[in-house]
């Protein structure tokens, strides 16, 4: 039946491939579940209608069989009563009903086979839907995990160029450069000492040495 073609397409589709192509996999998988549920509901409704037709056909078949049996009894009664003509007319009606019974039996058998097939299909569809619902949470979790991994990878990649991490590295380099410059200026200042001050320093140094020498001689009694 055509009603099952769309459901079959959905069940045969690779949900993971559909997720790969979807802009929002989480919404996509939820929509798939909704669509499958709607199709299963439609299939169940179609099955219910077919089963209703089956019951109606069964009821009509039983009524026809009772009518055939009734004409049979009437024919027997007429013949026992010696009225062969009446018995013939009863049998004529019975034969007509029996032809209808044969046709109705064929229709009922075909309808019953169709109903059995529909029952099997609906059962499979419901099982597939249950499986899809069970996979729904897993697929959504996988999708969110993939988004998280992508976000981390993007952040790590950005850290080597224009991110806050890169700015911090550049700032550290500037501070190091300033420190080096300051050290250089300090060295330059040390090299530019006033010559006069340097002479006084040498005199003071010589005086300190003489004082140490005098102290040492006095200690040794020299």
Automatic annotation (TrEMBL):
Keyword Coiled coil: yes
UniProt entry tagged with the keyword Coiled coil: yes
UniProt xrefs under Pfam families: PspA_IM30 (PF04012)
Lineage: Bacteria, Bacillati, Actinomycetota, Coriobacteriia, Eggerthellales
Coiled coil: 94-142
InterPro entries per record: PspA_VIPP1 (IPR007157)
Name this polypeptide is given: Phage shock protein A (PspA) family protein
Keywords: Coiled coil
Family (UniProt): Belongs to the PspA/Vipp/IM30 family.
